[in-house]
Amino acid sequence: MSVIIAFSMDEALRALAAHPDALILSGGTDLLVEINEGHRRLGSSSADIATSPTVLAVDRLSELRSWTIDLERSQVHIGAGVTWSELVSEPLAGLIPALAEASRTVGSPQIRNAGTLGGNLGTCSPAGDGLPVLAALEAVVHLRSATHQRDLPVAEFMVGVKRTARLPGELITGVTLPIINGWQGYSKVGVRNAMVIATASTALVADRTKRQIRVALGSVGPTVLRCSEAETMLSAAVDWENGGVGSDQLREFGGLVAAASRPIDDHRSSAAYRRHSVGVMAQRLARRAFPLESGPPGQGKSSGI
Ligand SMILES: Cc1cc2nc3c(=O)[nH]c(=O)nc-3n(C[C@H](O)[C@H](O)[C@H](O)COP(=O)(O)OP(=O)(O)OC[C@H]3O[C@@H](n4cnc5c(N)ncnc54)[C@H](O)[C@@H]3O)c2cc1C
Q1: Three-class SS of residue 250?
Q2: What is the pTM of this model?
Q3: Are 83 and 142 in a shared domain?
Q4: Distance from the CA of 137 to the center of ligand 1, in angstroms?
Q5: 188 and 87: one domain?
Q6: DSSP state, 53?
Q7: Which of 67, 125, 223, 275 has its CA 20 to 30 A from that of 202?
Q8: Closest residue (by CA) to atom 25 of ligand 1?
């Protein structure tokens, strides 16, 4: 096994051009687990060296470790090497609160100090906590190689269970997220309260400027799912001026979100529990976004969620 430690973007891209299938190492909190569990083979003897993949460490690249705020365009650019701990700190947490909420649920302090948003994208687990938030915010993923640069909507980047649209030789350099005028939040259920991979998760964005609700679900499909029918229904049902929504509408919304999920039974949960969970989480998030009960007097005063 050979390890290349890149100290500049140029070095990293040159190394990737020479070794397009190099294992890119950022915080290592996913990659090293995969290696330890034997899902990735590095080779342990001199005979393996010719066939084992090169490891490219990118954790020292300042371009990946930084973020910028563009208030004129109302957007934030986050480098792929920005850690969860940085995402929960101001000013990023205030600008993208749903991402901060998701980041706080990731692993332990040690994992949040090492693990990165780019690594979450690189692994592209359906349970990745950053991914539903990126999907609901309609983030753009930036990719770069020695020969080209391209931007992909995150929905096109995530193509399946731990499968992305990243090509050999490409590095994820970061994501661009809009700073929205409105409420955004993230919710997750798991088998315990901390240090837990999501059994099901939901991100909701209420974009007041576009008068649009956007919902994305994690752990209930091969990759993160959007819920277009539920989004259209709730966008039309809420009182955007006063911040209200009726309980009946919320229940209908929760039902549509649950119907949009495609969960499976596995060692973490049954499909039925997952489907139920995303419906409940979506209703709770929507109630946080629109706290007032609205609708005809006398109807649905208690949300019962
Ligand atoms: C104990 C523990 C608890 C965890 N808890 C959670 C949790 O609650 N929620 C959650 O979502 N995840 C969790 N994880 C998984 C992991 O911490 C996250 O997915 C993290 O964001 C991965 O980031 P990393 O920098 O460590 O990635 P790495 O392990 O370095 O890389 C992950 C993958 O992405 C690729 N990659 C990394 N950077 C780039 C890049 N710039 N360009 C292209 N490809 C790249 C790598 O090649 C690899 O395939 C946990 C892991 C552990 C060990």
Answers
A1: helix
A2: 0.95
A3: yes
A4: 20
A5: no
A6: P
A7: 67
A8: 27
